[in-house]
Amino acid sequence: ATLRFCVFTGLLSFHSLFACGQLCTGTKGDPIVNVTFGVGHAPLPPNTTSYEYTGGCPAKGQYTINNFLFGCSGNWVQMTGDHTLNYNGNYMMVNAENTSGIVHMDTASGLCANITYEYAAFITNVMQSPLTCNGHAVLPNLTFRIEKFDGTLLASYNTGDIPITNVKAWKQYGFTFTNPAGNDAVILKLVANAATGCGNGF
Known about the structure:
By secondary structure, the chain is mostly beta strands. It contains no helices and 14 strands. 0% of the residues lie in helices and 41% in strands.
């Protein structure tokens, strides 16, 4: 799975702060931040997530980095490989049941003013229906946040509830924003919004 923060070049250039709940189709430059979760099964670096690492299926409030898991929570979908169809490709699986928190956090620096950037990730719901939570699972709901280093929010985007598909169904979620003048670095946060109740696995 991949989290990407990249600049758009060519036709896409806005001259005011702008965020939209969609991904643009213009020419993209090379990613400034490109997270692929590496190889092997190891925790993320410190201060990257507020969830606790586990080597296998994640319990409530935990995450794992893996490329092949099935039988998690008793009835989650089989997770073989990442969104690239590489069966050895790692993904990050999170069990955010009743546990809101930072799924992933990173920084991007050397940004230019009045340039449009994209912040996006491939995400899938891992639960099955009607098996998970007796058919009443809380659906994953995530917010992308772009902040200045002082905590000022520059832009955000909410995925809405990510539906159960009963199979892994990677979908790219994200948005674009234009970096304001006088700012050359941002904090990128992907946050899980955890409603009370059973479920919220992604």
